[in-house]
Every structure is written in structure tokens, then in C-alpha cells.
């Protein structure tokens, strides 16, 4: 591990990123880091590709468990018409 590139500020970034990963709550990270604007927080607390992949795999697994195909759904509008395979 090369500590010559280490900066104290890296601890702050790591804490914000870890809190976001655990809670998914950007407002909590904002308060932890003391940012007055949420836009500043988004620069620190990025979501890594691994997190996105894990989230999509969880969604896929959940859908597989229910065997739901959104294109086979039947939705009813207020007028009582049936729409096959379309979001109402």
C-alpha cells in the first residue's frame, strides 16, 4: 500500500461512501459530511458499478421468484378497458 498518496480527506470520502452503501440515504451522508447543498454530497458519495450490478441482480432474482412478466400484465383504466402488456 502506497501511503505517499494518502490524504486525510480520503477518510471523509470513504465514510460518506460507506454510509451511502449501507443506508442508501444521501441525506444522511449530507448531514454526516456537513454539506449545505445536496449537490456537493453527490460528488463524494458515488455508487460503484458493483453496487449497481448487485442491485440489478437482486431485482432480477425477485422477479424470477414471482414469475412476473410485465408484458403479460392486464391493467384496467378508470373506464374499465383492459390494456394488454401496457403500463396504465
UniProtKB/TrEMBL annotation:
This is Tyrosine-type recombinase/integrase. Residues 1-57 form the Tyr recombinase domain. Keywords: DNA recombination. Residues 59-88 are annotated as: Disordered. InterPro entries: DNA_brk_join_enz (IPR011010), Integrase-like_cat_sf (IPR013762), Integrase_catalytic (IPR002104). Residues 65-88 have a biased composition (Basic and acidic residues).
Amino acid at each position: 500500500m502506497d501511503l505517499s498518496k494518502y490524504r486525510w480527506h480520503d477518510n471523509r470520502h470513504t465514510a460518506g461512501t460507506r454510509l451511502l452503501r449501507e443506508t442508501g440515504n444521501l441525506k444522511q451522508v449530507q448531514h454526516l459530511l456537513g454539506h449545505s447543498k445536496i449537490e456537493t454530497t453527490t460528488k463524494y458519495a458515488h455508487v460503484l458499478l458493483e453496487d449497481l450490478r448487485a442491485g440489478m441482480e437482486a431485482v432480477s432474482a425477485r422477479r424470477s421468484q414471482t414469475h412476473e412478466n410485465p408484458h403479460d400484465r392486464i391493467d384496467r383504466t378508470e373506464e374499465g378497458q383492459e390494456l394488454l402488456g401496457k403500463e396504465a
